[in-house]
């Protein structure tokens, strides 16, 4: 199966299942040093970023993913000032983080400079000029090398990288070794969050449960949650990890009060009720989490479904 056809973007969701969207125009198609990049206009989802054949975000529903990725951890931290974003090339993750006026500096590390430049040019409705915020510092580097060579301590770490594909650049960022390295660069009262793949009834064991179990080997408090992202064709999972912060302890009133105090407005998906509902995983996912034994390491990596 091709990554795309002239008229349709055809994307495997799993073995035997595809999702297809009619392409109205191809904005750009580039093979960078690290990955195949397409930015298209689609008939259903609008302007979309596709890396190595996998949809990363679309204009129609990117706010669901990015608000869900960022705010549960940011709101749960009492006073996040220094934030590290691993990946996040579209600039939408930075956009959400920079809504917090108490944040003093956001460091975004992405290995693919060409990708980020394409996103800056062709995805303005994703980043909403976040790249122009003076608090945002971008390093074009391998995240492993960057974190290993830095002694900086962060309040919040957000891992927003593509799925761990065998031929992609991100699979080493889902390992216990990388999580332990990040832990050493996180303040004691800090929190980490990672996108961890699909969580549908037949999908959660592809990646999500293994990532959650691996994080639990490094951190005392790990909590999984999910949201439905239409363009991904599934509910999508995230995992938080911390030594002191438990996002599920926050009440609806806590979240809404914090958002109001912080002047975080204009959110389309996230609020106190959404926060609580995201952490209410269905029974089948909880059972998979309880029985998961895999630990992802450099010598035993995990790869999600690929073509």
In short:
This protein has 10 helices and 12 strands. The strands form 2 sheets. Strands 8-7-6-9-10-12-11 form a 7-stranded mixed β-sheet, with helices on both faces. The protein has a 5-stranded antiparallel β-sheet with strand order 1-2-3-4-5.
Kindly describe this structure.
By secondary structure, this protein is of the alpha/beta class. It has two domains: 8-56, Spermidine Synthase, Chain: A, domain 2, CATH 2.30.140.10; 62-291, Vaccinia Virus protein VP39 (Rossmann fold, 3-Layer(aba) Sandwich), CATH 3.40.50.150. It contains ten helices and twelve strands. It has helices at 62-76, 92-97, 113-122, 124-127, 143-149, 176-184, 208-216, 252-261, 272-278, 283-291, and strands at residues 8-14, 17-31, 36-42, 46-51, 54-58, 82-87, 105-110, 136-140, 154-160, 186-198, 221-229, 234-242. The strands form two sheets. The protein has a seven-stranded mixed sheet, with helices on both faces. It has a five-stranded antiparallel sheet with strand order 1-2-3-4-5. The longest helix is centred in the first third of the chain and has 15 residues, at 62-76. The protein is globular and about 50 Å long.
